Amino acid sequence: MRGMVTVEPPHARRRWSVVDASVWVSRFVPGDLNHDASRGWLHHHLASGNVIVVPTLLLVEVAGAIARRTGDAARTERIIQLTRSLSGLRWVPLTAGLTDRAANLATELGLRGADAIYVALADRLDIPLVTWDSEQLTRANPRIRVGTPTTT
Fold first, then answer.
1. 50, 82, 124, 147 - which has most CB atoms within 10 Å?
2. Buried b / exposed e across 56-72, counting CB within 10 Å, b at 16+?
């Protein structure tokens, strides 16, 4: 996968953000309530030369959610290939350290497992999390900077 990193973001002008699966799924499902906002934010963020950091888990979450919602396996595969090819994405593998941190945050904040991975990644890199997930927005807020595509 291109862009695989586990390093701290540089202190440059580019903005770095962790973007969870809810934003990606919304972007790729035209009937989703947040489709336009997700599509616009992702396009603007990447077109501006900014960086999006995601765990490798993103592909599994996006594939499952889109395939379930659309029932179109071929379209889902095209979306996964497109997501893999985006040059502004930095992929972070699920290491023991990241999963341990996520487990601690899941326990401390009462988050679902996958949600805790995104929160742990944002916490580890000290960058904002962008999400539509209401539990991440409310429960992770004291720990990290978190917002929606319309508030970040």
1. 124
2. ebbbebbbebbbeebee
42-48 — which CB contacts under 8 Å span 24+ positions?
Answer: 42/149, 45/15, 45/17, 45/88, 46/86, 46/88, 48/15
Q: Residue 151 corresponds to which tokens in the numbers above?
A: 């508030």
Q: Is 18 helix (H, G, I), strand (E, B) or coil?
A: strand
Distance of CA 6 to the CA centre of its chain: 15
pLDDT at 6 over 50: no
pTM of the shown model: 0.90
Which amino acid appears at position 78 of this protein?
A: R
Q: Tell me the CATH class for 16-147.
A: alpha beta
Distance CA 132, CA 143 (A): 17
* CA Rg value for the chain: 14
Q: What is the pLDDT of residues 43-90, one digit of tens each?
A: 999 999 999 999 999 999 999 999 999 999 999 999 999 999 999 999
